[in-house]
Amino acid sequence: MAAAFWLLLWHLAASRLALPLLLPSPAAVLCRLGELAVTGAFWQTIAYSLLRILAGFGLGLVCGCLLALLAFFCRPAEALCRVPLGIIKSTPVASFIILALVWLPSPSLSLFISFLMVLPLVYENLFQGLCSADPQLLQMARVFRLSKGSVLRHIYWPAALPYFAAAVRSSLGFAWKSGIAGEVLAIPAGAIGTQLYNAKVYLETPDLFAWTAVIVLLSYLLEKGALLLLGRVSQRPGGPL
User: What digits encode the pLDDT tens for the residues 187-213?
Assistant: First the structure.
């Protein structure tokens, strides 16, 4: 119902304005999206952006987890990581995109930007999760001389799992948006961001809205997929999220 309300409002605004160049109707955008969807180039463009941004997300996820574990079990490493990760977190995405345009070829930029945005989010959340482990359980583990692997699996993992899930939810959407923003500025051939840029340059407003709808839909599907995967992970030893 909420979606229908906003679509109706959009339709009324487009009808009232009567300037498709500024605000095309939902029907015009849907028609253009249908025209794009039957072409092979459309799906190649989606695959291009998805593969690179998800690769950057996965790389940031793995590196963030490894750094959090290293920082937690080796406190000098935590002090070393604090400054650069704090700088990454506080610096605007646009600044990194512009710098990356100097350092990297445009096809690699979305992967790098996604990685860079995910890394501090995963690191901070997982580190906090590890620090939240119950000290009484840790004391019991020392008394019974449990192995480090058992302690990590049965005490640290359940404590860190909600933090990890929150990191995945937030960083996935952030990686997707920042990756697309990087493509808009880098303009690599065959990327979603490039299609947005071209639509703006050539005043193809229905195309601009159609590709924006694709971005929103893919973001929704990625989030649902991440939640489904996290739900399965939470059923393993360690308890629910």
Answer: 998 899 999 999 999 989 999 999 999
CA-to-CA dists, residue 57 to 5, 35, 80, 157, 178, angstroms: 34, 31, 23, 21, 11
49's tokens: 């952006």
Other Cβ atoms within 10 Å of 5 Cβ, number: 9
**Residue 45 contacts residue 190 (beta carbons within 8 Å):** yes
Q: What is the mean pLDDT of the chain?
A: 89
Q: Tell me: the pLDDT tens digits for 35-73?
A: 999 999 999 999 999 999 999 999 999 999 999 999 998
> Quick one: pLDDT at residue 169?
87
Question: What's the per-residue H, E or C state across 95-162?
Answer: HHHHHHHHHCCHHHHHHHHHHHHHHHHHHHHHHHHHHCCCHHHHHHHHHCCCCHHHHHHHHHHHHHHH
Q: Tens digits of per-residue pLDDT, 155-170? A: 888 889 889 988 998 8
Of 94, 47, 35, the residue nearest 218 (C-alpha): 47
Name the token pair of 100: 């990356």
Query: Which distant-in-sequence residues (6+ apart) come within 8 Å of 67 by Cβ?
Result: 77, 81, 85, 119, 123
Q: pTM to 2 decimals? A: 0.87
Instruction: Count other C-beta atoms under 10 Å from residue 170's C-beta.
Output: 14
Give the residue ranges of DSSP H helices in the chain. Answer: 2-17, 26-37, 40-73, 75-90, 93-103, 106-131, 135-143, 148-151, 157-186, 192-201, 205-234
